[in-house]
């Protein structure tokens, strides 16, 4: 992919959307392919490989190629949302298979695993995957087919050692899949650490502008399991629209600017907030006293992510009131956009959640750090 000895880096490839030049017009921005159907050749063949838009769309394939380049993977798949990407992996298993997932993880997926996937026939155990002894004890060699990780994990930003977990999963005959939404392909490459598949809610950092819902998977090998996932996407129609894929391509061009900016600001805010009188605890893997800091320093490069949480000394009501007093930070769910968001996570997760009720989750955008701190400070002290 380059005219020189050294291959271009993933950020270079993403900045130029792989250097695509439209064959018909020499346009530097790829067109949005909207056709749902394709002309069959006179001799009854489909030589372009395109038959029908549920499996076949050139804009989707271009976006997938960029994600594959970012994860340095042989193949990637885009799906209609992060949840459809995650569920496509689990639905490629067989009823009766045993899976292990983290106790603290993206709440909607945890709910789906515990309720819907169990009803469909998966046997699901949740463990603290950051505790390798607990993970080892949860594995049932031969029966466990998949270990799911999320690191850093929502909303406590717990760090799991991907390489160690991959070794344990593989020794038990299971695949390791990592939800790397928060780390992004810039900070961590799970496939290089032994994971079999990496998943992203592309709604978050990959797109980065809070205007697309999308999910992505990238694989270490194009094996039978990958083929089953791909077939499942097509058969169940868990697909992304071409306009969303186009926006995602556009968003990924600036991934390498947005993510380091969010990381630097999050690190700065985490340090300052650690000394704030209203705050009992700051949860951020970039802080030296975070339980996962040493592992994060090893498996994340260039920063510890743009997500942190704060726990308020004065409890739940004070947390909700603090969020109500922010003006620059927007009270909203989701993460990974250019605008900073604040959320009382307990209110959205509801009963059974491991999230403390005094916790506010912060998604750091690309605004000025002084503006962000000043708004939080006035909200924290304004009671
Ligand atoms: C948002 C999110 C998901 C789900 O993705 P959607 O695109 O909303 O379906 C999964 N995992 C993590 C870590 C997320 O933040």
Question: What would you say this structure looks like, in words?
Answer:
Helix 6 links the parallel strand 4 (144-150) and strand 5 (175-179). The chain is 37% helix and 15% strand. Helix 2 packs parallel to helix 9 (242-252), helix 3 (82-90) runs parallel beside helix 4 and helix 12 crosses helix 14 (369-381). The protein has two domains: 10-252, Type I PLP-dependent aspartate aminotransferase-like (Major domain) (Aspartate Aminotransferase, domain 2, 3-Layer(aba) Sandwich); 256-382, Aspartate Aminotransferase, domain 1 (Alpha-Beta Complex), CATH 3.90.1150.10. With 383 residues, it is an alpha/beta fold. The structure holds pyridoxal-5'-phosphate. Residues 81-83, 106, 109, 150, 154, 179, 181-182, 201, 203-204, 213, 215, 335 line the site of pyridoxal-5'-phosphate.
């Amino acid at each position: 992919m380059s005219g020189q000895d050294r291959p271009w880096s993933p950020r270079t490839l993403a900045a130029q959307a792989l250097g695509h030049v439209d064959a018909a017009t020499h346009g530097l921005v790829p067109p949005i392919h909207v056709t749902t159907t394709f002309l069959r050749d006179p001799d009854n063949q489909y030589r372009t490989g395109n038959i029908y838009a549920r499996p076949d769309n050139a804009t989707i394939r271009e976006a997938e190629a960029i994600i594959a380049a970012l994860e340095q993977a042989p193949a990637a798949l885009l799906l209609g949302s992060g949840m459809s990407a995650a569920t496509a992996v689990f639905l490629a298993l067989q009823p009766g298979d045993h899976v292990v997932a983290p106790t603290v993880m993206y709440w909607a997926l945890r709910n789906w695993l515990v309720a819907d996937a169990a009803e469909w026939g998966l046997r699901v155990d949740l463990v603290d995957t950051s505790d390798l002894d607990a993970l080892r004890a949860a594995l049932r060699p031969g029966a466990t087919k998949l270990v799911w990780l999320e690191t850093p994990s929502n909303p406590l930003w717990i760090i799991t050692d991907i390489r160690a977990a991959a070794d344990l999963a593989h020794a038990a005959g299971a695949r390791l899949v990592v939800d790397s939404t928060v780390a992004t392909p810039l900070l961590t490459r799970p496939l290089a650490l032994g994971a079999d598949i990496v998943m992203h809610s592309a709604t978050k950092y990959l797109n980065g502008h809070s205007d697309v819902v999308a999910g992505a998977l990238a694989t270490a090998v194009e094996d039978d399991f990958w083929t089953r996932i791909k077939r499942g996407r097509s058969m169940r129609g868990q697909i992304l629209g071409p306009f969303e894929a186009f926006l995602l391509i556009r968003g990924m061009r600036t991934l390498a600017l947005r993510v380091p900016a969010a990381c630097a600001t999050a690190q700065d805010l985490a340090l300052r907030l650690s000394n704030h009188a209203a705050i009992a605890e700051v949860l951020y893997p970039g802080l030296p006293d975070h339980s996962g800091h040493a592992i994060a320093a090893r498996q994340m490069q260039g920063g510890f992510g743009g997500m942190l949480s704060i726990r308020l000394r004065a409890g739940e009501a004070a947390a909700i009131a603090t969020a109500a007093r922010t003006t620059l930070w927007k009270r909203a769910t989701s993460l990974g956009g250019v605008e900073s968001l604040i959320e009382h996570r307990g209110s959205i997760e509801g009963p059974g959640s491991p999230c403390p009720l005094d916790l506010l989750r912060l998604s750091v955008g690309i605004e000025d750090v002084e503006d962000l701190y000043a708004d939080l400070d006035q909200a924290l002290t304004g009671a």
